[in-house]
Amino acid sequence: MASKKEFGEGPMYTLFNYIMWIFASNMYFMLCNILLVIYLLSFGKDISSTYVLLYLALLPMGPALAAIYATVGKIIREKDISITSYFFKSYKSNFKQAFILGFIECTAILVSIVDIKYFSAMKYGNYFTPFFIALIVLIFIIGLYAFPLLSRFYLKTTDIIKFSFVYSIKKIHITFFILTSIVCAGFILYTIPNIAIFFIFGGICYVIMFYEIKILNELESKSTKTESEEEL
Q1: Residue 103, Cβ neighbours under 10 Å: how many?
Q2: How many CA atoms does the CB half-sphere of 166 hold within 13 Å?
Q3: pLDDT for the residue 122
Q4: Which residues contact 97 (CB under 8 A, 6 or more apart)?
Q5: DSSP-based three-state secondary structure for 148
Q6: DSSP state of 192
Q7: Long-range contacts of range 216-219, CB-CB < 8 Å, 24 or more positions apart?
């Protein structure tokens, strides 16, 4: 006769844990981006004349992204976590590099937007617009790989950007799935914002990390193999 399950086991308990972990990581992420929350509450969708304020509000997002990716990555790998302590430990340990990386990404996007507005005012400036839009999309995609990498490995910022660019092209199917998931998340947030806001950031970061976990494991295996060969 099968033994009875202990309290804390079973699919319903596991599902509840995952929901609470995603909810908590989402709330901590928003707390760390309180400037962005205030900005969105103040200006909403009207960002046409407030690019600089949006830029400043986005700067703290780098460390928050590193922390939430580290958190959901641990959930995926180990299926257990002390959510509060792990999130803020990751936030603190990755703060400097994640802030620099976020600063680079936000600045590059802001400069591209300014260039679009500048060239649009010129006679033949619209011919340059597709280039800068493509550049913004590329920077955004690189960020989708860069922060998960940063949350898992100790690498130079230049190496993180290089690996992110390479894998965003090498694993184009994963990039496509991630972008599709982000579009779906945006649709959900637009449709049911009052509910989605409590889970959407934690949820989409979990999905992105789930897609990229094999890439990170592959890099870890290569790194371990290289270290072993160097020791020999």
Answers
A1: 14
A2: 9
A3: 80
A4: 66, 150, 157
A5: helix
A6: S
A7: 216/73, 216/148, 216/149, 216/152, 216/153, 219/149, 219/153, 219/163
Predicted confidence (pLDDT) per residue in 140-187, tens digit: 999 999 999 999 998 999 999 999 999 999 999 999 999 999 999 999
Reading the block at residue 164, the tokens are 């992110």
Whether 147 and 168 have beta carbons less than 8 Å apart is answered as no
Q: Is the dihedral of CA 120, 123, 129, 130 positive or negative?
A: positive
Q: What does the DSSP 8-state code read for residue 47?
A: -
How far is Cα 143 from Cα 138, in angstroms, rounded to an integer? 9
102 within 8 A of 58, measured Cβ to Cβ: yes
Q: How confident is the model at residue 224 (pLDDT cuts 50, 70, 90)?
A: low
Tokens 């997002």 — which residue?
Answer: 61
> Which spans in 3-128 are helix H?
11-32, 34-43, 51-58, 61-78, 83-93, 95-120
> 154: which 2 tokens?
């100790």
